[in-house]
From TrEMBL:
Lineage summary: Bacteria, Pseudomonadati, Pseudomonadota, Alphaproteobacteria, Hyphomicrobiales
UniProt-recorded name of the protein: DNA-binding transcriptional regulator, MarR family
Gene Ontology molecular-function annotations: DNA binding; DNA-binding transcription factor activity
Organism annotation: Bradyrhizobium lablabi
Superkingdom of origin: Bacteria
InterPro entries for the chain: HTH_MarR-typ (IPR000835), WH-like_DNA-bd_sf (IPR036388), WH_DNA-bd_sf (IPR036390)
Length: 173
């Protein structure tokens, strides 16, 4: 196994576990509304980029064309979206949010706000903001890496060693 500091291994596990648990619990929270997290995700994205071509939607969500097509089929049969042929290229299908979906999205946003408040319960606002800042920086770094950019060496690497020692009485998760 690669010799990594304890905090580095723990960070990866924590990010993965929190993401997995959040997805699972969010699906449970949305179940009474009759929508899945995947459908909500696509619907929310379309509402911000109404009229996006279906293939571009698949690319931006990093989902296969068939997968996003099936999600849009379900959303369309529920009356939340409709597909229309592009006026210039009839082969292109653009996806639009319906009036019914806009009202439903307001309800979903309220449920999402309640859910997020529950999972952030007992966490200081400054800690949440620092966590958000750190995750956004990691996301930017990952996106830069995916574009083939080499990140500059960081002088903070010296600080990493200081954090790699486990705290007394605490085990790495």
């Amino acid at each position: 196994m690669v010799d990594l500091p304890d905090w580095d291994l723990r960070l990866g596990y924590l990010i993965h576990d929190v993401s997995r648990l959040r997805r699972m619990m969010f699906d449970r929270a949305l179940a009474p509304l009759g929508i899945t997290r995947s459908q909500w995700w696509v619907l929310a994205f379309i509402s911000r980029k109404d009229g996006l071509p279906q293939t571009q939607l698949a690319n931006e969500l990093d989902v296969g064309k068939v997968g996003v097509g099936a999600l849009i089929d379900r959303l369309e049969s529920s009356g939340f979206v409709l597909r229309q042929a592009d006026p210039v290229d009839r082969r292109v299908k653009r996806v639009f949010v319906t009036k019914q979906a806009r009202g439903f999205l307001e309800k979903l946003r309220k449920e999402t706000d309640k859910f997020n408040a529950q999972i952030a319960h007992g966490i200081d606002r400054k800690a949440l903001e620092a966590t958000s800042d750190a995750l956004l920086a990691m996301k930017r770094n990952l996106l830069a890496m995916s574009d083939g950019n080499k990140l500059p060496d960081n002088s903070e690497e010296a600080d990493v060693g200081k954090r790699s020692k486990p705290r007394k009485g605490k085990k790495a998760a």
